[in-house]
Structures are given as structure tokens and as C-alpha cells.
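User: Second chain of the day. Same drill as before.
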Amino acid sequence: MTSSHSSSLSPEELTKIEQDFDPEMSFRQFGPILTLVVTFFLVTMSIYHFYASGFGLVRELVHRGIHISFVLGLAFLLFGLRRTTHGIPKKLIKKSYLHFQGIPIIDIFLSLCCVGAAMYLPLLPPELVAERVGNPGRLDVIIGAALIILTLEASRRSIGFTLPLISIIFIAFAIFGPYAPGALKHGGTSIAGLVNHLYLTNQGIYGVAIGVMAQYVFLFILFGVLATRIGLGQLFIDLAMVIAGRFSGGPAKVAIFSSAFMGTISGSSIANTVTTGALTIPAMKRVGYPAHFSGAVEATSSTGGQITPPILGAAAFIMVEYLEIPLRDILAAALFPALLHYFGIFVMVHLEAKRLNLRGLPSEELPSLFRVLKKHLLTLTPLIILVYFILSGRTPDFAAVYGIIACVVVGFLQPENRLNLYDLYQSLAVGARNTIAVGAAAACVGIIVGVVTLTGVGFRLGYVVVQTANDIANFFGNFWPLSIFGVEQLALFFSLILIAIACIIMGAGIPTTATYIILVAVAAPALSLMGVEPLVSHFFVFYYGVLADITPPVALAAYAASGISGSNPFTTGNTAFRLGIAKALVPFVFVYSPALLLVAEGFSWQTFSITFLGALCGIGLLGAAFTGYLIKIMPTWVRWYTGFVSLAFIAPGLNTMIIGTILLVPIGFQQLLSRQTSSD
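Assistant: Same format as last time:
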């Protein structure tokens, strides 16, 4: 299997799979005239953001307003009323609506309304805006309410019902606060007061979420599109083939490495699954992996892209704003947890290959390292420049701007995947188009965050979670072996479980970045009350939000992989969750031992070494328990015992590692005896 080999599915079929499982990519089709117009505005959007972030001096509110006007205005053109038909059904158009180039006139009108409502406030003199905060006029309330409604609808069209529905619940909570139960009860607010907070202040739609999208995320998404266009993605796949293709179960290991590499330039689980899975999934099936396992390996590996530096989806940039620490510290904190995730997948893939006696790929199907580097090495330049500027302490937007410039220069100079002006024009359009859904989600999240800051519901929910965890701890603390732990330790443990469950539920059907922002607002306060430092709590909720992409019943990345592998989606999702079990355990590790995040408080190399080594051993043993194979096939009781022993290693600390090592002895004896018996 070389880079010239193609998937058994056509590019059109792969695009269809991505659109079916990723609502953010479900764009509707329209006529040639409107295609030209929309493409022009998308390219204009890219050029504006490149200029404003790299070289311009645009007032913050104006910059955010322009970004929102582009995002919401284009959302009503790119996404139809009903996603399943990519627009309003033809019968309904003919009977009830005038339409232009396949788009109802009403959508064009709503698009213009978005631009007007988004730019109304930024174009007012700053001193006039300051006077109206807390005392909005009637026109302010009308336009603000219109923008809130348009934001909800644009978000519904681009990412589905879940996030707008949550936003509506929060809006109702803000207005009907006096009727809320227990600790959630508050004084409530009027519609004018709510619109004032969500529209006229920087705590709502024009808040941190949309600011980060406009300043940082847009540029990094554009960088990823350009880097892929000039061949960096293909280089990653070829390098993964060289590194891992020849070993036992080679294609599955290629999927892990290529997805990890792709994660450095793309934060989309589904896009990574389709891009790398088009090559790796058919190869895995060809060497003998079951279809559902092949899809699960690719989905789990691709989901890891969202926790892989330097992009981390878009969450890294939100953390920079919230925690007020340099991006390089965020990336340093993310490095070793990401390695543990991929190590967990690698162990299970390797043991599964040994259990099934699977071969690697023959040498004639593997690319030559020399030819790969000769053909694509220049394409690494933009990524090197990007990482260099980040590590040197430059701002993320500065690094992204020069990374984009490097992509364009390399694209025009290199003989392979050469860019021309038309390619650049189309890439700018695709980059902007890929930001529309996440931008609409960010504006919608601004509504939720605004309600949280207005009502203080985050700390109220934190109090409820802590009280519930304390009640559970007091109950179970009376039973052995939990009685050996203190109530505070048990309360923290049960708080983590409750928050993890909430994160996974919230992450079902909501983009990861939006999930993270919401959970930081409503769940992180609970961890803060338990004494968990902010960096750790942010990473905890982020990791469990990402886990939703491979957690049934809404495991979108796994379902996309099943579309390529031809396997049962639910079975693929269950297998993907099993393969990604390290991602579910690692957050508990760094809560109890923050040294794993490198830049957390109280870091020391000794503590880090013990924690990381223990996590490696524990995740490896857990992989063996789930696979049912270590040296030989394990009986059921050995698998359960191995899973229990793995927890002793995962729990950070030298004492638990010593206990785990002692408990490991019977497993070693059983496996060696089994091997000796089979050889006889």
C-alpha cells in the first residue's frame, strides 16, 4: 500500500460520508451565479481575517462584529432549513417560496438581517455603546433580540438541535429564575435585561468564545486547509507507513501514527477519520482485522487529534484566554496525556494483531523513506515555522499568520502539489467555509455563557454537584473497602465521575469546543470548590467532552468510520470506546497527580516520572485485559484480575506501583505456564 493506492470508496462517496456524519460539513448546493457570489464572500472572509489578525488594527468589538456578520450571514446561505434535503424541499419551494439559484429568498433576507444586526452595535460610537449598557433603548432590544434568534437558528442549521435547545433552556432559566428549584433559584431578569447582557456587553454573543474564533481559530483552520492542500497530510500518511507498516498488524498501527500526525494540523475527529481512514481501513480489513475493529481503530486514533498539540481543536486558544497563560504552556500540558491516549490504542492494536496472528504489509506496498522525504519534505516547513513561533513565545495569531504565508510560498515553489492562483482562491474559500459551523456554535455558546455570568448558575450547579458527591461519599464510606478512604477523597472521586458523565452527555451532538466552553462555565466551578487547580479542571472537562465522539449512542467519529468499513455503527462505537479507554482514565490520573501536565502547580520530575511510568504500565495492562491476550490468550478470571491490577498502576504514587508490581506476579506465572503448556 503506497501513497498512490486509493480507497475502495470514491472521493464523492467519502465526501458523502463526511456530510452524513458531520453536520458541520453538510453544505447545500445552489446555482452557478450564487456559487460565485458565496465563494467570493468566503474568500473575502479569509483575506479579512488574515489581514486583521496579522497586520491590521481593528477595534475588538468591530472585529468580533465583522466575524459574526460573516459567520451568521453565510450560515443562512450554506445550510438549509432541513439538513436531510440540503435546503427546503422542492415542493415547498414551488408552492410557498420564491427562490433564487436554489435558495429561498427568505434565507437571503435572513442572511442580510444577520449582517445588519451583527454590525449595528460595533458601528456605533464606543462612548454611545458604553452609555447604553444597562439602559438599552427599544431599538437596541429589538435588534439584540433579533440577533439572538438568528444565532439560535444559524446554529441549529449548522450543527443540529442540541446546542440551540440547551441555549433556549438557559434563556428560560434566566427569565423564570424565581420559579427554579432549590439552590438554582434566583431573582430572574426581564427580556430587556437579558438582551442587554447578551447583546450590549462582552459577556454574551460578543464574548470570549467568538473573540477567540475571530482572532485565533479561524487562522488555524485556514492553516490546516492550506497545509493539507500542499501535501502535508499525504506526507504524514506516508511517514506512518514507513514507521509502522511492516510490523504485525501494520495498517492499524499506520492508522494510529497517521491520525496522530494529522491531529497536529486538524482538530476535526470526523475529517481526520475520513481523510486517513480512506487508506487505512481497507488495508486493515485486507490483512485480517474485523471490519468493526478496523473502523474503531481509525475513529479512536482520529479523535486523538483533538487532544494533540499544537491545535487541540480550538480548545487550546480558549484556555489561553480563560487561564491567561501562554499557548506553549497549554501545549506542554497536553503533550503527555495525548501520548498516553495513543499508547493505549497501540497496545490494544498490537495485542489484537498477535492474538489473531496478523501480518504486516509486504515491502512492495510500503513507500521508501528516501522518496517520501525527497517528494514531500518541503511541506514540513510551514508546520516547523508554526511550532517555532509558538514555542518562542509569540502569540498564536502571529504564528498562524506566518504559517499560512509559509504554506502559500511552499505551495508555489514545490514541484509536487503545486499551488496556482485558482487553487489558492479555492483553498481560501474552503478554509472560511469550514469555520462557519464552529463560528455559529461559538456565538450560540456566548448565549449560554452570558446566562451563566448573569445568574451565577455555574457556582450554583457546582454547589449542587459537590453536595451530591458528599452525600454519595457519606453513604458508600460506610462500606469496605471504600471505608479506608476519607470522606473528602471519596467526595472528590464521585464529583469527578458525575462531571465526567455530564461532559459525555453534553458532548453528544455538540462540537467539542462548544462543549468545552459550556462545561468550563458550569462544571469547572465544582472542581474548583473541591480544590482542583484551574488548569487541571479545564483539561478534565475538555478530555471528557472529546470522548463523546467515540461514546455510543452518539459516537459520530465511529459512525463515520463504520461508513467506510461497512461495519455495524453501534458495534464500531462500542469497540472505539474500548480502544479509547486510556482517554477516559488519564483525566483521573492528572487530577490526582497534576505533574503529568508538566506546567501544573507543584511539578517535579520525580513525581512526573512515577506518574507517567505508572500510567504506561496501567494502560498497557488494561489493554491486555480488554484484548484478552498478553503472551498467550487469557482465561476470563485472569482478564478481570489484570484489569484490577492495572488500576493500582494507574493510581499515581510509588506505593501503589509497588503494590501493583507484587499483584502482577500471578499474571506472569499464568501466562508463562500457558505458553509452556502450548509449546509442549
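The beta strands are 99-100, 103-104.

User: Great, on to the next one.
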